[in-house]
Amino acid sequence: MKRKLYIFNPENDMALGCGKDSYNAPKWALQWRHDLELLAGYLASEGSMVLARDAQAAQRWLDSRHLEVEAIDASMLHALRDIEIVPWGWSMPLCKELALAGMHRSLLPSPEEMATVRDLAHRRTSIAVHEAMRQEMNRDFSPIPVELGNSSDVLQWALAHPGCYIKTPWSGSGRGVYRAIDAGTEQFERWCAGAIARQGSVLCEEALDKVLDFALEYHCDAVNGCQFAGYSVFKSDEQSQYGCGIVDQPSALRHAIASLYPGIDAVNEAMRRVIERLIAPHYSGYLGVDMLLYRKGGAIDIDPCVEVNLRCTMGLVTSMLGERHAMRGSFSIVPASDATQALTPIYKNTRHVAQIKDEG
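Above: the chain's sequence. Below: its structure in token form.
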């Protein structure tokens, strides 16, 4: 088995959206990459590597957490050969960054492979997954998202679906999501026009009476196809921005979902088959499928695909923290000054840390 190198690049979705091999990430994304780079240590298998700015300082911290992982910095990339790279997510800007640092190009996806990954990471993939799940399980689920490329069409759709969500094709952690409670205002029209100008279209989704946010995590590769990788239960705000995640054993997370929706195992297996057919032939790595439970009449139903995150996710982190590291509590990203139980190091100029609060 090849040794693995894990890289935390949280700007990935926006880098995909730019459609080029160069991207100037916003300051907040660069700060997150700096502050939270060693989150990858919790995903990494024993004996693997994580990329850090300061390898020596990172190694001291990893050792203090009893994480059997080696820290390396960019100056060491040129010497790596027979390894597997596991970034938070793949984008052309990351490929260029690694190549410029001296990494052998045989270890990187080709431009053609990256074009396919970018297409699959587009939020319209959720439409294809919805339709495939409907066929797989022979039933209708929640309303299927609609992709629109004209601002006036978006306005008409939003007026017909009050409180709906308008989403850019590439964005993550709730960024690039507009809750349309003010359709028709100058701010709404300006946001939609800008999103379409930058990324070509937007996805429009009806608002549902949400009961629970959760995700199912998977891993794809050419040998094993699609394998289930864990449960994620989390909270998000009205703009769909990630708030916090629940860390617990897999059985406890499954129970939190199944107690409200007993058919979750059938949905999980159907989704695994759908991913194996639609995505696994073209993509190797982790992905998460965001879902939600919602009230429908007097019952609770499921939206089986709010979106597909073609990358690692915070949900994968919380799943690993519970299953592999036997932690329990509430996971969130907080200002370093407020941290009481930090999971990531506080170096010079650190502004954010990952934190888990034990809930007893």
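Residues 208-327 form a domain with the D-amino Acid Aminotransferase; Chain A, domain 1 fold (CATH 3.30.470).
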